[in-house]
Amino acid sequence: MAAPSRLPSNEEQSADAAGGGSATPSQGIPVVDLGVLVNGAADERSRAIRDLGRACEDWGFFMVTNHGVPEALREAIMDTSKELFRLPLEEKKEYMRAKPMDPIRIGTGFYSVVDAVPCRRDYLKMFSHPEFHCPEKPAKLREIAMEYGTCTRALLLELTKAISESLGLAGGRLSEALNLDSCFQILVGNHYPACSRPDEEALGLSAHSDHGLLTLLFQNGVDGLQVNHNGEWLLAKPLPGSFFVIAGDQLEIVTNGRYKGVLHRAVVGGEQSRMSFVSLIGPAMDTVVEPLPEMAPDGRGLEFRGIRYRDYMEMQQSKSINEKTALDIIRMKHQGEMLTCQGGSTPST
């Protein structure tokens, strides 16, 4: 993968976000057909696995089609999210006092207590696995979110098997290493208000990589997701009915940097508000995530030290969002650190 040029700061992002980048599926964003990965003939499936590996290595981002998630379910989870955002403040304030690791949070920006740059976003975050949590209102949200979480978790775990195979490993290797039978899952609804004045800051969410393993995202027909590919910000335009899949930091750690957690951001602009809905999976919370031995033979060339996923997530979620600074904390920087890992057990925090 070509080394990205210097990425813009948060302030520079605000200045260029409204007109930043453009891309269509035909311009190179990879597309993965889940039907081929699951039920394709052997040669067809082998090609799809190789293509998936290239997507993870070159982009850290792709679209998935034929995924089996009913369109009616996607519409239902989006509609009930809209209802929640419209609720009176009194009915939401209980969750607006929540801390980063609380299972239900409603707020603005990223973590408004520490945000360095104002971000035009309202959000709902709810942990959905291994234990399911949901606000009491709207009443129908619980049933819809539970079904959506179950359905998208199965999809993401199926993709994880194929990603494991793309590394030349057994399909269950990543699941075994990350204890995905008890995986962490969070559902996130995002609302980005309209921003029609070109002189206003136009960031919905600053550049960042996700703390988890894989993120599944769809939106309400209003574009705004940008991904950084080879140092250039590209506006991601989805195929009808598809999901975006975003590689996260835990995939970068466990593959020893072979597959990258992609930098992405949300921009706002124009007179239409944008909504997106996210389903993210990560390792079991108390799993120490470290590079697979297969990715660093004889313990040489380790890119990261091990860290418990719960600690990593809390570290990333409790600070001002800023590109990949959380991952950089556990990145090997000194020869002394490498020698420590090569000569003994991998440290964890």
TrEMBL record:
Residues 179-283 form the Fe2OG dioxygenase domain. Belongs to the iron/ascorbate-dependent oxidoreductase family. Residues 1-26 are annotated as: Disordered. It comes from the Eukaryota. Pfam families: 2OG-FeII_Oxy, DIOX_N. GO terms for molecular function: metal ion binding; oxidoreductase activity. This is Fe2OG dioxygenase domain-containing protein. Keywords: Iron, Metal-binding, Oxidoreductase. InterPro entries: DIOX_N (IPR026992), IPNS-like_FE2OG_OXY (IPR044861), IPNS-like_sf (IPR027443), Oxoglu/Fe-dep_dioxygenase_dom (IPR005123), Plant_2OG-oxidoreductases (IPR050295).
